[in-house]
From TrEMBL:
Principal EC category: transferase
Protein name: Protein-lysine N-methyltransferase EFM6
Main location: cytoplasm
GO cellular component: cytoplasm
Taxon lineage: Eukaryota, Fungi, Dikarya, Basidiomycota, Agaricomycotina
Enzyme Commission number(s) from the entry: 2.1.1.-
SUPFAM superfamilies linked to this entry: S-adenosyl-L-methionine-dependent methyltransferases
Keyword annotations from UniProtKB, A to Z: Cytoplasm, Methyltransferase, S-adenosyl-L-methionine, Transferase
Function noted in UniProt: S-adenosyl-L-methionine-dependent protein-lysine N-methyltransferase that methylates elongation factor 1-alpha.
């Protein structure tokens, strides 16, 4: 379980201290193994459900060259793990859109559940890694990669989502208002938005100050692992679009 690849991602987050909480965090992240030295990562999500393959496995090509999104970040692994544990019922017949998908990890982890279409989106340099990972997991029929730049108009080919997913998207201050704008453009009061983030610096507060104008939020409490990742400053929240903006 203490795989060097995972340690690598965690260490780039500044988490690789020899602390008890990091060891605990490693126990809840999906099992990982580097199949080869060429950047192919295998993630296995174990769960108790009868209706989906056990474990749910995702092959992930990771590559830091297109930017930070080319790696699998802990918040993405935590959100993917939460959705796998919840199982297909929550996602059935929903249009699902992930923002800042990077490698596509979260969308790919739920891509094999039936009855839904998932849009994994990011900036143009990440499109080839997302498409490569869709093909690698043979999910062409359920997962679509698309360019979606926060703050830009939503491309006409992207349908309005019922569920929006976002992991580790709060890290670059100039992008804060752009991300809030896109969340707002894509949602109404019925949209379910799951947002998993890591608090890194004081400036992150500014994101929540901007967010507050259009959204309320509450912590997701039904993840039994939350006490472990909370200790590493990772939190999962559900955003609710305000009907009357402040
Ligand atoms: C830290 S990575 C997280 C990637 C992935 N969600 C995960 O958890 O592994 C943040 C992602 O946000 C994307 N991103 C940053 N600014 C963006 C913008 N203005 N428009 C769209 N995506 C953006 C990056 O390209 C990157 O893939």
């Amino acid at each position: 379980m203490h795989d060097s690849g995972l340690e690598g991602v965690i260490s780039s987050e500044g988490l690789a201290r020899s602390s008890a909480s990091v060891s605990e965090l490693l126990t809840i992240l999906p099992q990982q193994s580097h199949a080869t030295s060429d950047g192919l990562l295998k993630l296995s999500f174990s769960h108790e459900l009868e209706c989906i393959p056990r474990p749910v496995s995702v092959s992930l090509f990771v590559d830091a060259s297109p930017g930070c999104g080319g790696l699998a970040w802990p918040a993405g692994q935590i959100l993917a793990n939460y959705l796998v544990q919840k199982g297909p019922k929550y996602l059935e017949n929903k249009n699902i859109l992930e923002l800042g998908s990077g490698t596509g990890l979260v969308g790919l982890a739920i891509g094999a559940f039936s009855g839904m279409k998932i849009w994994i989106t990011d900036q143009a340099p990440l499109l080839s890694i997302m498409n490569c990972n869709i093909r690698l997991n043979r999910l062409e029929s359920s997962v679509v990669a698309a360019e979606l730049n926060w703050g830009s108009p939503i491309p006409a080919n992207i349908p309005r989502p019922d569920i929006i997913l976002a992991a580790d998207c709060v890290y670059f201050e100039p992008a804060f208002p752009l991300l809030v704008q896109t969340l707002s453009d894509l949602s109404d009061s019925t949209t379910d938005i799951l947002f998993c983030y890591k608090k890194r610096r004081k400036a992150d507060k500014r994101f929540f100050a901007i967010l507050k104008k259009k959204f309320e939020w509450k912590e997701v409490l039904d993840d039994p692992h939350r006490h472990i990742y909370n200790r590493e400053s990772i939190t999962m929240i559900r955003l609710l679009r305000r009907s009357n903006n402040l």
